[in-house]
Amino acid sequence: MLKKIYFTLFIALTVFSKNTIAQGGYDIHFNIKGNKDTMMYLVKYIFDQQYIVDTCKKIKNGQVYFKGKEDLDKGVYTLVSQGKAIYFDLFVNENQKFTFNCDNNDIVNTIKVVGSKENELFITYIRFITNKNVEFNKFRDQSKTKSKEDSAKFIQEKLKAMNDDVRKFEADYMTKAKGTYVYDVLNLKSEKEPKEIPKAKNGRPDSVYQYYYFKNHFFDGIDFKDDRIVRTPFFDDRVKRYFDNVILQHPDTIIQEIDKVLHLCKQDGLAYNILMGYFTYKYEQTKLMGFDKVFVHICDTYILNGKAKEVYSDETVKKIKERTDIMRNLLLESKAPELYMIDTTFGKQVMKMGFDTAKTSQSVTDLYYKNLEKLTPMFKTLYLVKAKYTVLVFWSVDCGHCQTEIPKLSEELKGLKSTIDFTTVAVYTKEDFNAWRKFIIEKKLDFINVFDPIHLNNLKEKYDIYSTPVIYILDRDKKIKAKRLGVEQVVDYLKFLEKIDKNK
Fold first, then answer.
1. In terms of domains, do 400 and 439 share one?
2. What share of the chain is helix, strand, coil (3-state, %, to 5)?
3. Do residue 262 and residue 361 come from a single domain?
4. CB of 209 closer than 8 Å to CB of 193
5. What are the tens digits of pLDDT across the range 448-493?
6. What is the mean predicted confidence (pLDDT) over 212-240?
7. Contact 460, 466 (CB under 8 A)
8. For residue 228, how many C-alpha atoms fall within 13 Å in the half-sphere facing its CB?
């Protein structure tokens, strides 16, 4: 399948292009009999993206030329048609001057290469695998004429025989290819399985042994210090499968495994820089609760310690630090930041002090100190709320989603009042006191309803509030036990926490 191709130079990160000025340059010729394309692209793989490195705009009689005075980055490339269809992959390594000859009607079985032993070797592999797929499709068509039971048996037998053929071919092929770049690339897609599996107590093959063997040998033979490995169609899939499907999905495990993998890389090498950018973005954007701990670890251990200078500019690092400082204080088990708020009881009094019309931070500060004696007894603070659990909700009356979800939350929580010791603190994130108070009364919101007309609390930074509603659950000591829950999750999570506490 053709991955997304960028028709412009990649400029978002600086990790990809440290091209060395070479002497020979490249000269790659394709003679494709019967081809009618008038333009083709030479495309480079880099992790999970592809980038056009050269374009042949004048094609006559299937003659395609790509030439340049400087060497191409060593790696796997692909020939792409003007309609964005892939013809085939090719290896660009030390030798960058060679020719492919083939017939457009049957490229795989007619292709021959002159001047590149690596591409010759690769073609034998592609030809065998492609023809096996064709063979299987024929068997599948034959099975359609049989009964359901006979068809399944027929396909199963043929598939087993074909898998045996493929395994034998690949084993022999990899033995012959060892020591070549072709071997290194195909090794990225080969699974490492134990030859002998001990028996478990139940007499069956030990699945735990199989898992740990598979996990511990997942990156065998992969040289993370070799930039060429990143420029293949298989490296990204191997890394992603390991972190998404092979290892335990727990922040501490992922942190440990990221450190291991980055340790295999050469600092500021291509694999190191690519993976640094990938992991940073992945775990900053994750929706899995608690996994922001991974992002904070990456930032603290690498980016903010000057170990990602080739990935991010100083200006970007500064922004990452700001983001990290916010998230670090909101990790699970961290103590929630204190809040100094005003509830509905004193809302009108505070608004009359002039905070709603103050236009500058200095005027707000002046008003604060002028009225400090009156304000002090009005403050409702988070840490003075006494309950086993605190449901901390940030919402706004002009938020359409909040208008639906907050009353729903109020109703769902009523059923827990007699079974779990909790209090709900609902923080209004805007300043329209009248609209807020009206909504509370109409919807009968049985919360501790507070807002911040004095602008004492920077909610965006303190609690990472960039949209609403946002819901946290805190324990008796105001440690964060859950965050960014959906309204439908709150009741179940409170029950879950209570069950854990009782089981202790």
1. yes
2. 45, 20, 35
3. no
4. no
5. 999 999 888 999 999 999 899 999 999 999 999 999 999 999 999 9
6. 95
7. yes
8. 18
